[in-house]
Amino acid sequence: MSSLLNTHNLSFKRGSQLTLNAISLELRRGEITAILGANGAGKSTLLSLLAGEIIPSQGEISLQGESILSMPAAKLARQRAMLPQNPNLAFDLGVEEVIAMGAYPFAELSPQQVANLSQRVLQLADISHLAKRRYPQLSGGEQQRVQFARVLLQILANPDQPRYLLLDEPTASLDPRHQHDLLAVVSRIAREENIAVAVVLHDVNLAARWCSHLLLLKNGSQVAYGTPQHVLTPERLATTYGIASTVIPHPRDAERCLVLFEE
């Protein structure tokens, strides 16, 4: 797959503290890249940089050769969507109203077009049964899936442009079935819509199952970047997480690996 979004020597400081140091990676069309690391490793900061929400202290972020730092916010919102770790919503809105927020960057869409997109993402997120509910009355996991549907609408609304999707711990509030369902949907739309995806995950085996490339971070520095088979070694995992592990071929798929962390 061709490269869509590239970073080179990307660093970020908060005051005098260097929270990200010289990160270089690429997001490819049709593929998912997982960002992994212990708490405080800099995962969410990196995603915020890729979204253009904060300015790097050093380095470049380019979307097909164009710096996202020079792109107007309205243009960037038409080409990337981001699901933050803890989406805040202070208003008592209905589920369909929350999902329709994803259409805000696209003033040219008719109400019927927005409604059609809403129905599509309700089905993709498996929440059609929640469509008439009030958002504040939902469980944490249900709210997460509604927010997921919102960013899906945003990223699917502009099929003629290069697009990338950023997800910060989208599976955190979900049960195992819905974790896999969500990542299966992300994998499908990435392939079918030619979208590049970066996702922050804590579950290494989820990442190995659904992602073509992994980035390991430790205290803001890049430990390893590459395919799961290349990245997931006991040595690199010990460096990243400070815990011993065994990495074995997956019992149902020899081309995949399975990580067993030791007590």
Briefly, what is this?
The chain is α/β, with parallel strands linked by helices and 263 residues long. The protein contains 9 helices and 12 strands.
Characterize the structure shown.
This protein is of the alpha/beta class and 263 residues long. The chain folds into two domains: 146 residues, P-loop containing nucleotide triphosphate hydrolases (Rossmann fold), CATH 3.40.50; 69 residues, no CATH class. It contains nine helices and twelve strands. The strands form three sheets. The chain has a six-stranded mixed beta sheet, with helices on both faces. A hairpin with a 2-residue loop joins β4 and β5. 38% of the residues are buried.
The fourth-level CATH homologous superfamily of the largest domain is P-loop containing nucleotide triphosphate hydrolases
State the low-pLDDT regions, or none.
none
Tally of discrete structural domains? 2
What is the percentage of strand-forming residues? 25-35%
Please report the total strand number as a whole number.
Answer: 12
Over all CA atoms, what is the radius of gyration? 18 Å
Query: Tell me about the biggest sheet?
Result: 6 strands, mixed
Q: Which class of secondary structure composition applies to the elements?
A: alpha/beta
The amount of helix comes to: 25-40%
Mean residue pLDDT: 95
CATH class group of the largest domain: Alpha Beta
Distance between the termini: 39 Å
Overall CATH architecture of the largest domain? 3-Layer(aba) Sandwich
- What is the fold-level CATH name, i.e. the topology of the largest domain? Rossmann fold
Spatial strand sequence of the major β-sheet: 6-7-8-3-9-10
Net shape = globular
Task: Work out the oligomeric state of the chains in this entry.
Answer: single chain
